[in-house]
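call fold(seq) -> tokens
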Amino acid sequence: MAVTEIHVAVAVIIREGRVLIARRPDHVHQGGLLEFPGGKVEPGETVQQALVREIQEETGLQVPVASLSPVIGIRHDYGDKRVFLDVWRTDAAIGEAEGREGQPVQWQRVGELRDEEFPAANRPIIRALKLPSWLAITGQYRAPADILNQFQERIRVARPELVVFRAPMLSATEYQTIARDLVMAGREQGVQIILHGAADRLDRVPEAAGVHLPWREADRCGQRPVPAGKWLGVSCHSAAEVAHAEVIGVDYATLGPVSPTPSHPGAPVMGWESFGRQVAAAAVPVYALGGLTPDDGDIARRLGAQGVAGISLWWSGI
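ret:
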């Protein structure tokens, strides 16, 4: 017998750097675990209408429809139940939150959210909340010995939170040495460094925040190649590649090129319409990549993406 998919509207309600969390009653599906407020979208309702209704009924908060923006859509099969979590965010909820259905509610810092305390389907939401809205990638450098200086120059100006250290022209030894220097410099400025290349680079520089796999490396993986607690990203160019990234347990994917880019002249581009369709099918946070500017971040997020990634967003002007 076919299993019906349940469309669930989920609200990420942010206030003063904290997110509203509820605990599921013990007697319901996934009882006792934490969750983001929300509920089933009823026939004839839009997801926004469902969110406004559910949040008012569950917590007493008033949510202006215009304040809602998409975060991520997640399809998850629990075996006995299949759900589509349609996740939207607001930082403009009005009133004081209370558990009107007897459920405990609390405001919790995003950094304190733990996978094991939530249903499995909620975990990509946690990733989306912890990841920044743009992902910086290092570009061309004057000379290997000067990468650290260029990096420090750029972080003082652009202030990224997360940087992928991509330097394909370096030898393995050079990359390892410079990566360690960047990790230390990043810590002083509150910047996390993600390595780029094969997963075993993290074995050599375990101080890094994670690793970003080019597609050729991800394609060889049958399971997650890095430990929990480290970021794992993959460069993808199609919905099929994003689906494989999900199978191996990535925390995020980049998808593109959306527009023409100087680093890959003549490469075919997918455009925003195709990008939006592929993001809608993804169950992990996705960054738009390829020929983009900071202003494109709003377009990407309206399509349900995490934001934008790239080199020219921050590495120009040196």
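The two ends are 61 Å apart (CA to CA).
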